[in-house]
Each structure stands twice: as C-alpha cells, then as structure tokens.
Design brief:
- The structure is a homodimer of 325-residue chains.
- The radius of gyration of chain A is 20 Å and the shape is globular.
- Chain A contains nine helices and 14 strands.
- Helices cover 33% and strands 25% of the residues of chain A.
- By secondary structure, chain A is α/β, with parallel strands linked by helices.
- Chain A folds into two domains: 149 residues, NAD(P)-binding Rossmann-like Domain (Rossmann fold, 3-Layer(aba) Sandwich), CATH 3.40.50; 144 residues, Dihydrodipicolinate Reductase, domain 2, CATH 3.30.360.10.
- In chain A, the strands form two sheets. Chain A has an eight-stranded mixed sheet with strand order 8-9-10-7-11-12-13-14, covered by helices on one side. Chain A has a six-stranded parallel sheet with strand order 3-2-1-4-5-6, sandwiched between helices.
- The interface between A and B is medium-sized, with 31 and 31 residues.
Chain lengths: 325, 325
C-alpha cells in the first residue's frame, strides 16, 4: 500500500494545517512527508507532533524535496498566489486553501502555470468532495427536483471585532467575503451552473472598514434566483436550500454536509443521505491523492473555472463596495 | 356572557370565510350574527351551515342591520376598498382580509373614513395576534437578541398555473406579491420597525405576466438587512429568522407561528414558546371582539400605519416591475 500513497508536503503550519495533518494521518492513500514554516523550530515541532519525515525552515526547501508529490497550502490567502506559483514551477501538485486567490488575473495565471508544468492545481473546497455534496449533485443531475428556481445559501459566523485579528486585518485580506463568502459563492456557482451578471449586493462594514456581512442576489436568464449570505458579524444557520420546480433539497449545515434531504413539491421527504466521517477533510485528501496518482491536472469536483469565476466575483464586489480599486 | 359577545357579520362567503366562521363559533367573545353574499341562496346555505341568525342576499342589507357591530370582509382583495368604505360609512367596525388594499391612497382613505366615523378598522393580519408572535415581539422589545441585524422571512407556495384561477387573474389582483407577499412584507415592517427606501427586488413572471416569485432586500440606515421572499410558483420553507447582535429567534412556520425559539450567539436554545390552538384565527377574532367592545379604532398589533406602508410598497414594487403604471 505504502508505495501507492501520495506524499504530501504542508506549507504554512497554522490551525487549518493542524487539522489537515491530523486527518491526513488517517488516510491510507496519503503520507505526510514534509512540512515547512518560516521558522525551523515551528516546522520541527509540527513535524514531531504529526509524524512528518522532514521539517523545513523555509518553503523553497520543501519545494525542492524530490519525494514530495503534492503540497497543501495552509497559509493565509494573501500569500497564496506567490507560494502556489512557486510550487507549480517546481513541478509540485498543489492543493490550496480557499479562497485560492483574490483576483481573476491571479487565478488565470496559476491555472496557466499548472497547465504549463502539467501538475494538479486544486482549490481546497473540501465540502464539494463530501458524499452528501456528491449525492446532492447526483439528485440535481438526475432532475429529482427539476430545474432549479431558487437557491438560498448562507454562511456567517461571529467573531468579536478585534483589529489585531487576521479576519479584521486588511493587509491579510480580512473581511467576510474572502473568508466566509467563498463557500456560498462557489456553492451557488456549482448548483446554478455559473454566476449571473444580473447581481445585486448589500453589505455592512467593520469599524475599520472591511465588509462584515454581505447579502448577494443573482438572477439568471431563466429567471432563477440565487441568494447568498456571508458574514463574520453574526452566527447564522448554515443550511442550504435548493428549490426546484418539482421539489427541493435541504443540505443541513452545508459546509459540513453531514446530511442532505430530498423533498417533493408537497414538502414530503423522499430520500436522504447521511455520512459518518469524523472530519470531512478525509474525502478531499483521498480525492487529491487519487488525482495526483492519476496525473490529473484538475479536480472534476472543483474545476479551475469555479476558482477563476469566484475570484472574478470577489473583484467585482470589492469594486462595487469601494473596498478596492 | 352572551351580552358581551361582539356581533359579527361576514361579507364574502368563500373558503376563507368558512374557516373564519367555523373558528368564530368556538370563540366565547364573538357571535356570528349575519352573513351576506351577492346571491340569497348562497347566504342562506352559509348561514344554515354556520348558525348565523340572518342571511342577506346583498351587502348593504347586512351593513344596515343595526345589531351588527363588526363586519369581517372575506372578499377577494380587489373588492376590499369599496366594501370596507361602505361598511365604515355605515358605522360598522371592519376586520378586512389581507391585503387590505393595493394602493397607499386607498389605505389612507379608509383610515380617514374609520377616524371620521369613529369605528375600528383592522387588517386581518391574524398571524400578529398569535401568542408566539407576541412572545417574539416581547423578546425583541426586551433586547433578548440585541439590535436586529438581519431578517430572513419567506412565504411561497406552489399553485399550478391556471389562468382561470383567481391567483393568476390580473382583474382579481392576482400574483405573488398581493397574496403571499403581504405576509413577509408586513412581518418585516413589524420586526424592523419600518421599511427602507434602500431596496432591491428581483421577480419572475407567470406565463400571463403576473409576478410569480419575488425576492426583496432592504438595507436600513444602521446597516441592518431584511430579506423577504414570496411566491406562488414554489413551495418554500416558511420559518422566519431574526438575527440580532447577541442571538437569534426562529419562528417555525411563521405564518402559523406555532413555535418560536430564542437562541444565544452560540446557537444554544435559551427559551421557546409553543401554543396549542387548533386554528390560529381564534386569537384574531378574540382580539377584534375586545377592540370593538372597548370602542378602539385600531389594533395595537396591526396598526393602520403598517397597512398603509405595505400598500405603498406594493405600488412601488409594481411600478418597478412595470406591472402597473
């Protein structure tokens, strides 16, 4: 089995990478080979805790490790573009935390770079790899609820305002849209089959002028409407509702996607799907490992186009809100 | 007890009036005195079934019945203005089905008429009289969730398109906004303490050009956002979510308001309220009967201003959608 394991490196050793490493160690198809931080000590400590074979005090050394097949980027998103690009240029496959980047140009440049170097590039939109998400897509594709007419999806959590915190730091690309918004936006892109130009948004601001709660509505050519909410100032329910002409699907806590339910037009439950994994990261890790082993360039669950479209929408919204030029 | 009962008349003897009469007959404070339809036979049959003392073959005879203290108007809304006005001019208190009227001018004219004749005028927004609705208001007033930041309220049901049906008949003021929209709109007016000029809407059309599904978003001066959905083309969940800075309230099936729940910011259930009435109309009937007996002109739960503001919003939306001049 061991020789079929994809050898992972991890760059950026914060909280999300701890979770990633922990789950990776439960995945038969993956092996935690090396980790890298800007300080050797931090890398050593992380490597020891999670059993990585190598610990590097700088990112380049990890990229130059010939054993590594795929690098997971757990850095804050303001550093993604630069580091992902370097990895790709070193011939490493990349699984990059969401949001992958913040501008369309950066997204397209990374995609071009992945193509040029013939390596996998995948945004870590792990929720799309969950069995419940795949079941939802399967229902939609089979026409179980007919044409989608209305999507209602929101992800908003509450963090006390603290200008020292990353989320409220403009230099670290803080704000609700990037951190929380990427989930409902890419969810809508996936379910609705794209974004619409016919869009309207409202937002509120943190005391230091970042977006804190955003409501985005899109209407498509066929009249269908998508309603997306994200925030860092309120705890909202995170169920996703997909209403079709013949019924609807509710994904309970769509981010974790533990359970999805299929209803007919009379609100009668027709079918449901529940999964049992302790941590949903496992599906993403397994999926990425398989893609690497099969020398795929992109994930069928998280196509490049979706990451490009999302970063383009970020730009449009930030311009509309006058939060960026 | 009998002499303290408010004597009701009913004008318009369709489905909603059947339900009203049935519930009225279970209410100690109210007595079904007379009913009126345009045909004597229909009135006779209704009176017999629900035990009304008098049956009139035209509305004026009912208005001239000196025993009647309050008239319930169960006609389709296109007839409301004219008949309500006549009732008020005959010195009768009026409980009028929703929406009371479709234009601001009509609403203001009826209010002036009620004031001039010193009689009760009340829109039958019965949901506001439910104990769970009153409990919700009590929580809000006591600051249980702090300042309201986001309201998410929707009421949409699905009726197969049929141009012969009232809902799809422009002459009978069909469409989603009037029939379904009045609920979330007045709900938002109540919870948010008004409407905002800063509004955006999207809508879809029935094959014959009436609005079939509407999404309306408002942002208030303090940044708070209200999201209202109504429709006659889809069955949606009808829970209302009121998010405040310190927690939220969920009203399950807000139209019927059987249960409301109070949560803190960590989504922990702090309190809930459930009621048991078989049909929620009972609270409205009891309330209207008390108001009449106490010679009140308007209901504290459903103030005139709310009906005026809602009809004004109808006009604005219909103009924006180019469905009315």
């Amino acid at each position: 089995m061991a020789q079929n394991q994809a050898k992972f490196g991890i760059i950026g050793l914060g909280r999300i990478s701890q979770r990633f490493a922990k789950v990776l160690n439960t995945c038969d198809q993956a092996l935690l080979w090396a980790v890298a931080a800007r300080e050797q000590e931090r890398a050593d400590s992380f490597a020891k805790e999670y059993g990585a074979k190598r610990a590097y005090g700088n990112y380049l050394d990890l990229m130059n490790d010939p054993e590594i097949e795929i690098v997971y980027i757990g850095l804050t998103h303001n550093f993604h573009y630069e580091v992902v690009k370097q990895c790709l240029e070193h011939g490493k496959a990349v699984l990059c935390e969401k949001p992958m980047v913040l501008t369309k140009w950066e997204a397209e440049d990374l995609v071009a770079c992945a193509e040029k170097n013939q390596v996998l590039l995948m945004e870590a939109m792990w929720t799309r790899c969950l069995p419940a998400s795949l079941k939802t897509k399967e229902w939609l594709k089979a026409g179980a609820i007919g044409e989608v007419r209305y999507l209602d999806v929101q992800f908003s959590f509450h963090v006390e305002y603290d200008p020292e915190e990353r989320l409220f730091n403009p230099a670290l690309a803080g704000g609700a849209l990037y951190d929380a918004g990427v989930y409902p936006l890419e969810y809508a892109y996936d379910v609705m089959g794209g974004f619409s130009e016919n869009m309207h948004s409202m937002h509120t601001l943190t005391p230091n002028g970042l977006d804190s709660f955003d409501v985005i509505t899109m209407q498509y050519g066929n009249g269908a409407i998508a309603h997306m909410v994200c925030g860092i100032s309120l705890n909202t329910i995170s169920d996703a509702y997909i209403y079709g002409e013949n019924g609807h699907i509710i994904v309970r806590d769509f981010l974790r996607g533990k359970r999805c339910e299929l209803y007919n037009d009379q609100n009668e439950l027709l079918d449901f799907y529940e999964e049992e994994a302790e941590d949903g990261f496992i599906y993403q890790i397994r999926h990425a490992a398989e893609l690497v082993k099969n020398q795929k360039l992109q994930s069928p669950y998280i196509p490049w186009q979706d990451s490009i479209a999302c970063s383009e929408l970020f730009e449009r919204l930030m311009r509309e809100w006058k939060l960026k030029e």
